[in-house]
Amino acid sequence: MPTDISIIIPLFNKEDFIVQTLKSILNQDHKNWECIIVDDGSTDNSLQIVTNFCDTYTGNWKILSITNGGQTKARNIGIREATGRYLAFLDADDLWVSDKLSKQFDYLESNPGVIGVLSGYAIFKVNSNKVRVVKGNDFQKMLRKWADMSGFGGGLESVGMVRRPSSIDDALFDQKLSTSSGLDFTIRLSLLGKVALLPDIGLLYRLSEGQWHTNSDELSKNMSIISEKYSNYFNFDLGSRHVDYYFWVEIRKHGRTHLIRMVLSDLVRFRIRRLRMLSWLLTRNLKALFLGRLNRKFVLKQIQEIVI
Predict the structure, then answer these.
(1) Fewer Cβ atoms within 10 Å of its own Cβ: the N or the C terminal residue of the chain?
(2) Per-residue confidence (pLDDT) for residue 213, from 0 to 100
(3) CA–CA–CA angle 217, 219, 223 (5° rounding)
(4) Does the model's pTM come out above 0.70?
(5) CATH 3.90.550.10 describes domain 5-214+296-306
(6) Which pLDDT does position 214 carry in this prediction?
(7) Rounded distance, CA 85 to CA 171, Å?
(8) Please, is 120 exposed, middle or buried when counting C-beta atoms within 10 Å of its C-beta (0-12, 13-18, 19+)?
(9) For residue 8, what are the β-bridge partners?
(10) Running along the chain, 308 residues long, what does each successive block of 10 average in pLDDT?
C-alpha cells in the first residue's frame, strides 16, 4: 500500500522533548504515514532515545544520522528520502493534535487544486497553563503579516503539509536560511499554486530555551534576505517594516515606562508608520491571548494526553 504522508523531523539535541513529539505522531488518527527522523549530529542522547523509541513502538520509522549541517539541510535530506504522496513537517520539540494529519490530508484529497495547507496553532510553555492561539482562514493576509513581521508566522516547519511535487527541487528549503526558511518555502509554494489556511488548531508550538526565534541577530540576517527577495512580491518595502518591528522589540526590553514614553514621543512627532506597527503587534498579541482563553481546555487536554 503506497504511503500517504511522509513526516520529516530534523533533530538536534532535543533529548528532553523528542519522545513527546514522536508520541504525538503515534496518537494521529491517520495511520498511513512514514516518519523520517534526521539526526543532525546531536551531541546529547537524542539519537539513542529515538532509536529506543522506534524499537519499542510500532510505526513506519526511518532514522538517518548525518554530520551536523543545520536543520534546513537535515530537513532537505529527509525530503529526498520521502516516499509519501504528501510531505508533512514537524520540529523535534513540537507536538501535533491528534487529528492534524487527517484534517489536512482530507482537505488536500478533496481539493486537488490546492498545493499545500497550513493550520492554526497553539503556543505553550512547559509548566505553564498560559496558552496563546494563532488561527485564521485568509492565507494571503497571514503570509503578508508573516513577511512584514506585523503578525505571527505560519509555522510551516511544524504544521505544513504539501503535495509531493514532480520536481523534488521545488520541495527543498533554502539552506542559506535558518529562522526564515519556512517563510521562504511558503512564499515559493504560493508561487507554484494555491495554498490554504485551515482555522483548526493543528500544532502545539512549544516555547523553550535555545530556539531559533530567540536569536535576534540570526533573525535579522534572515529577514534581510527575505526583504531583498520578496519586497516586489508584496508590493511594499518589507525592510522598512522590519526596522519598525525591531525598534519596538528593543524598546520593550527597557520596561513599560520606557515604552509609554516612546509611544507619547512618536505621537507628538506624528511617526504614524512606527505607531502603526506597534498597534499591529499589540492587536496580534491580544487576539492570541483571547483565542488562547477560548481554546485553553482543548489545548491543555491535547498536551496532557502526550506529556504524561
Answers:
(1) N
(2) 59
(3) 120
(4) yes
(5) yes
(6) 65
(7) 12
(8) buried
(9) 36, 89
(10) 95 97 97 98 97 97 96 96 97 97 98 97 90 96 98 97 86 94 96 96 88 77 97 96 96 95 95 97 98 97 89
Q: What is the pLDDT, as a whole number, of residue 128? A: 82
pLDDT of residue 31: 96
Max CA pair span of the chain: 67
The three-state (H, E, C) secondary structure of the chain, written as one string: CCCCEEEEEEECCCCCCHHHHHHHHHCCCCCCEEEEEEEECCCCCHHHHHHHHHHHCCCCEEEEEECCCCHHHHHHHHHHHCCCCEEEECCCCCEECCCHHHHHHHHHHHCCCEEEEEEEEEEEECCCCCCEEECCCCHHHHHHHHHHCCCCCCCHHHHCEEECCCCHHHHCCCCCCCCCHHHHHHHHHHHHCEEEEEEEEEEEEEECCCCHHHCHHHHHHHHHHHHHHHHHHHCCCHHHHHHHHHHHHHHHCCCHHHHHHHHHHHHHCCCHHHHHHHHHHHHHHHHHHHHHHHHHHHHHHHHHHHCC
CB 199 within 8 A of CB 158: no
Phi and psi torsions of 99, nearest 5°: -110, 20
What is the DSSP pairing of strand 114-125 with strand 86-89?
unpaired
- How far is it, in rounded angstroms, from Cα 218 to Cα 307? 31
Predicted local confidence at residue 77, as pLDDT = 97
Give the phi and the psi of residue 166 in degrees, each rounded to 5: -65, -35
- Looking only at the bridges linking them, the beta strands covering 95-96 and 194-207 are antiparallel
Question: Residue 11's beta-bridge partner residues?
Answer: 39
Cα 114 off chain centre by:
19
Non-local (6+) Cβ contacts of 257 within 8 A are none
Other Cβ atoms closer than 10 A to 264: 10
Domain spans in the chain, listed from the N-terminal domain onward: 5-214+296-306
Please give the grid coordinates belonging to residue 27: 496518537
